[in-house]
Design a protein that fits this description.
Elements: E1 12-16, E2 19-23, H1 25-34, H2 43-70, E3 76-80, E4 83-87, H3 94-123, H4 127-131, H5 144-164, H6 172-184, H7 189-210, H8 214-240
Parallel strand pairs: 2-3
Antiparallel strand pairs: 1-2, 3-4
Length: 253
C-alpha cells in the first residue's frame, strides 16, 4: 500500500554530509495540508511551518542515516508524502538495527531539547510559558518568526516523535517491536508484531475519531489496513510458500 514514489522532474535533490537526499513533491503538499491552520496567522507563518516540518523530518532521517553509515551502510534519504525514509541495505545485526531505528526519534528529541533549552534560557521563561507562547514576563522577547519557529520545532519533534514510537508498522516503533518480539520468538515474532500493529493502530484510530481528529484517524486506519494485508501475506507464505504469488487462484484455496 505504501510503495515508494518514482522520481519526477519536480523532485528536489541535494547531498548532506555525503548522503543523497531526494524530496518528492508530495512531501510539500502533505506538509502544507498538515499546517493549513497556520494560514490564519499569515502566509509567512504558513511557509515557516513547512520549513520546520522539512528541518524536523531531515533531522529524524539523518539520525537513522548517520547511524546506519557508522555501522557500514551506504544510506540515502527520501522525503515523500508519508514523511521520510532512510534507504539502505540492511546488513546490520539486530542490535545494530535497533540502534539505527531508535536514533531517528532520538535525533528529533535532541533537536527538541536544544530548541527548548536555548529559548527558555535566552528569554528567561519556564518550559510551560514557552509551550503556551507566554512571553510577557520574558527578559528578552525574540522576533515573532523566531518564536513561531521554535514553537513549531518543539511541537513537531515531540508529538511526531512520540507518535513514531508507537508499535505500528512501518513506523520506527513498529519495527522496534518486531525486533524485540523476534528476540523472544524468532518463529512468530514478525507475525505478532503485525498483530500488535493492527490492534494499536485500530485503537488509536478510534481515539482520534472520539477526539474529532479525523485526518489522523484516516492515517491510522490505513496503517492498520496495511498491517492486516502484510499479515495475510505472511499467513499464506507460511501455508503455501512463495508459490501462491504465481497462482492467480491462490485466494480460492
Amino acid at each position: 500500500m505504501f510503495g515508494l514514489p518514482s522520481s519526477t522532474e519536480f523532485d528536489v535533490k541535494f547531498s548532506l554530509f555525503g548522503i543523497p537526499v531526494r524530496v518528492h513533491p508530495l512531501f510539500w503538499l502533505v506538509a502544507a495540508l498538515l499546517g493549513q491552520d497556520t494560514l490564519r496567522l499569515g502566509g509567512g507563518t504558513f511557509l515557516l511551518w513547512i520549513a520546520c516540518v522539512f528541518v524536523s523530518v531531515v533531522v529524524h532521517e539523518f539520525g537513522h542515516a548517520l547511524t546506519a553509515r557508522y555501522f557500514g551502510a551506504d544510506p540515502s534519504v527520501l522525503l515523500y508524502g508519508m514523511g521520510g525514509l532512510c534507504v539502505y541495505r540492511e546488513q546490520q545485526t539486530r542490535p545494530q538495527r535497533l540502534v539505527v531505528l531508535l536514533m531517528g526519534p532520538g535525533a528529533g528529541f535532541l533537536l527538541l531539547a536544544l530548541v527548548v533549552v536555548l529559548t527558555t534560557t535566552a528569554c528567561g521563561i519556564s518550559i510551560g510559558d514557552f509551550w503556551n507562547l507566554r512571553f510577557r514576563s520574558a527578559r528578552m522577547v525574540p522576533p515573532v518568526p523566531v518564536i513561531f519557529a521554535a514553537h513549531f520545532l518543539a511541537q513537531i519533534n515531540l508529538i511526531w516523535g512520540l507518535f513514531n514510537l508507537l508499535p505500528i508498522m512501518p513506523l520506527d516503533g513498529g519495527q522496534v517491536a518486531e525486533i524485540l518480539l523476534n528476540f523472544h520468538n524468532r518463529a512468530h515474532g514478525t507475525r505478532r508484531a503485525y498483530i500488535l500493529s493492527i490492534l494499536t493502530a485500530g485503537l488509536a484510530a478510534i481515539f482520534c475519531v472520539r477526539m474529532q481528529s479525523y485526518w489522523n484517524a484516516v492515517l491510522l486506519g490505513l496503517l492498520a489496513l496495511n498491517s492486516y494485508q502484510v499479515l495475510q501475506t505472511l499467513h499464506y507464505q507460511a501455508k503455501y510458500g512463495d508459490s501462491f504469488y504465481d497462482d492467480a487462484d491462490w485466494w480460492k484455496r
